[in-house]
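User: Could you walk me through two proteins back to back? I'd like the raw sequence and the structure tokens for each, with a short line separating them so I can tell where one ends and the next begins.

Assistant: Of course. Protein one, sequence then structure:
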Amino acid sequence: MHFHFITLFPEMFDSYLGESILGRAIKEKKISVTFTNPRKFVTGKYKKVWPDGNISQQIDERPYGGGPGMVMMAEPVIKAAESVIKKIIHPTLRAPLKRGIKPKILIINFIPSAKKFTTEVAKKISGKFTDVILICGRYEGIDTRLDKILKTTKFSIGDYVLTGGEIPAMILIDCISRQVKGVLGNFDSREEERISSSVMYTRPEVLVYKGKKYKVPKILLSGNHKKIEEWKENSRKN
């Protein structure tokens, strides 16, 4: 599985993707990640070279119809996505582990009002696509024409608004990667594949804290697996 992030802030992903399960999965080439900054595709009057040699690349503009904030322009983001697609589908540009596999590409944009991303969606994506392009918007969002031109799939991770699409993108790569065989040490350890409860206990059997005893429920010590699974199911529902 290959994830391609289009973001103004690729450094935001360094820590998250460099640690734990995802870090190991990348190192072992179970998944791969690339980053493309849409600022590199800013042209015309929005790209300025100053006398001191510094270059400024404006990627946002005022929205038509008015509004308090700025909106990312569609063209630089579209060109960034197209550059990624070219590398995915062009035989000589593709990474060795991709060659010989017909790519199937999904382009995702994050919209608060879009359909909710779920584990079931993650399973479908992991089973159907080889490459996922994740567009991380900023400011008030991205010019809507981007979705029409790139034919994006739009997702929301919840009924709230964030300052950018980087956090939703991290959520998606985490959830989708779990569905890729070899990413988890034990594929059956996925919580979604077994009866999972938010109520969990481990050693010691009696936890003494500030003079008060907190005990593990007797049913978990009974050895009766059928009853234990029923208890987990009930606790999950409640």
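----
Protein two, same layout:
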Amino acid sequence: MDRPVISNGEWENNRPTAVILGARLYPDGSLSAAMRRRVDFACHLYHRGVVSRLLMTGGPTSAVCTEAEKMAAHAREQGLPDDHLLIESQAMTTRDNARLACNLLLQARIPKTKDITEQTDHSSLNSTPPPSSPQTVLIVTDLYHAPRAWLVFRIIGRHSGLRFKIRPCLPPTATMRRAGYWVATLREIPAIALDMIRSWSVPTPRPTPDRRSL
């Protein structure tokens, strides 16, 4: 069966966006191992052509800068172009990550006035309507955090028209042997129960005007 030929722009629009969930920064503003691991994995997906852009979400857990800004700087070092990076620098919880990231993605889907005018001007030349398939979002976080993150995004973004998939990144074997990793894993058990309850009261994501595209 012949595959349909699509333009580079159409291919990019059909590839998902990777949403990288932040982790705490060190006091001096440097990346923690978990944060570096998540960004490196998302950049790997980007360079393989799996995703079209990266959305960094994470607030000010250091006096120096926000998690999202630090992650974006690290992504640039990995060769990510500025126009394929989005920053959300207010989220302080996984619920915030989901709500604010969805807001940002919904805002990014709204066509600019110029685009609307161009579509109207060329309507007689091309009557094919734009694709209405839901936008896919790849959630990138650590393996132990993945179940809770996926549930929170699914609950909070249930009316957003977005489709969520999880792509956890595996830590090195040495990290998984450390007690701290398993303590963090065990903490996820009560956190999942709490967030499943709290997420239902989060306002429905809506486009927000304070989007920043780097």
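Confidence is low (pLDDT under 50) at residues 1-11, 112-120, 122-132, 210-214.

Let me know if you want the two compared in more detail.
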